[in-house]
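1st attempt posting a full record on here, be nice pls
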Amino acid sequence: MFIEERLLDRVTYGFVGGPTWSTTRVPLYSGLEARNAERTRPLYRYNAPYENIRQEHHDAVIGAYNTCLGGLHGFRFKDWADYTITGEILLVSDGSVDETAQLIKTYDFGGSATIRMIVKPVASTVLVYEDGVPMAYTLDSATGIITFTSTAGKVITATCEFDVPVMFESDELSFSFANYLSHSTDIGLKEDFTA
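the predicted structure (as tokens):
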């Protein structure tokens, strides 16, 4: 089960997280090294600190944790280091009556690129354009798929904010109390590929 709700986004300084890849490295007799990618996409991991939060924020975090049954169910999380796409080209329309496109984000470096599927867009921020002109569309905010009617040859682009589908990494949640008004915890999260 996936809960289409964002975890409290009041993380404090000390937030750590981002993509992790898995590469097998085998040293060869020649002194060279053979390398193989174990995944076709990165796994995002986070350490989200909630420092000196008020009682209502404490209640929101522990409510989410218990509702998710620890690490069983996934939910949305805002990655403060990477949460926007701007003018991303989704496709060039072929004129189909109902066309669909997956929201994506392209990362490039040195002439090479990799594409990330955006599956949890923030619906209120999504803007879709046809050759730079805003267009009508419908959005499935649980999958990041947009549906539209277009004219052949038009370039379809999108701009939006997005969340990452995650789950709690541990089945144990501990809070520390500096005083009766101040609660703190660090929460480990990892991307939920099943969302």
